[in-house]
From TrEMBL:
Residue stretches making up the D-isomer specific 2-hydroxyacid dehydrogenase catalytic domain: 4-309
Gene Ontology MF: a single term: NAD binding
InterPro entries per UniProt: D-2-hydroxyacid_DH (IPR050857), D-isomer_2_OHA_DH_cat_dom (IPR006139), D-isomer_DH_NAD-bd (IPR006140), NAD(P)-bd_dom_sf (IPR036291)
Record-linked CDD domains: PGDH_4 (cd12173)
Superkingdom of the organism of origin: Bacteria
Pfam families: 2-Hacid_dh, 2-Hacid_dh_C
Listed name of the protein: Phosphoglycerate dehydrogenase
Protein's GO biological process: L-serine biosynthetic process
Organism field: Iocasia fonsfrigidae
Keywords: NAD, Oxidoreductase
Keyword Nuclease: no
D-isomer specific 2-hydroxyacid dehydrogenase NAD-binding domain mapped to chain residues: 102-277
Amino acid sequence: MYKILVTKPIHPIGMKILREKADVAILSSVENMEEESKDKDAIILRIGNVTKSIIEGNPNLKVIAKHGVGVDEIDVETATKFKIPVVNAPGANADSVAEHTIAMLLALVKNIRNSDINLRKGKFNYRDSAKPVGLEGKTFGVAGYGQIGKKIVEKSRGFNMNTIVYDPYAEINENQEVEFCDSIDTLFKKSDIVSLHMPLTKETINLITYKQLKLLGEKGYLINCARGEVICQSDLSLALENEIIAGAALDVFDKEPPDINEKLFSYDNIIVTPHMAALSEEAIIKMSTMVSRGVLKVLEGEMPENVVNLNQITY
């Protein structure tokens, strides 16, 4: 039977698929990753990183999988060098992330967090100073127009907002019903609300700085359900403290788990969730089945569609 290392258990449906054809080991701790992956045919990643040394130290390794979409925790370049397919689960969590984004959007503009806190303190008159904002006629900027970005645009249409998009890699055609911006700065300058949905790459690390936040302005809102490192978090903290923007909602952070003693977490104009946007029950089932079936296909000599380095490896 094949030997598979899962760094953290996936949904029971996915585990069942794997165990029908493989011996499945669960990682004891991230610190033991290199040692426990040595004789495995496959690694399914939920926590930790698959590094160059892990790949080079395991001649048996035939496939690496990410339980999710972003593969920034995997050294894809080294995997490609050794002709190891890197499997992920594109689209499996798109609805979940999009729904979470819309929930954050509404919570921000309607000031739900502070209204809830104040009412629980007996301050019913907070309603007179809550200052909720309407969405109709606002400009909603979406940075990143992959499967999640497209879902966000689709789900936001019911609010009668003007939706604009920035994605330098998106294919643009005349039939698309959104306006494309030529730069991230243009997107921030034109938008009332910006939602981030780009992958973490060398180009996107600290892409959003104080400069873009000033362009968004004192009535603007920022949502990040992508990767924490896309934003310069210290700049965001400063912008919130000085009310350079109206508010922010974060599901991701530059370090996870974050240090809740950071000043960022002390502000009233921020909403935070623990990197859970992709974790609806439905999304977890989709991710686990897509990844487990993809891994087994590779081990059985087939090539699934969901291989991120497909064009760089040959069989």
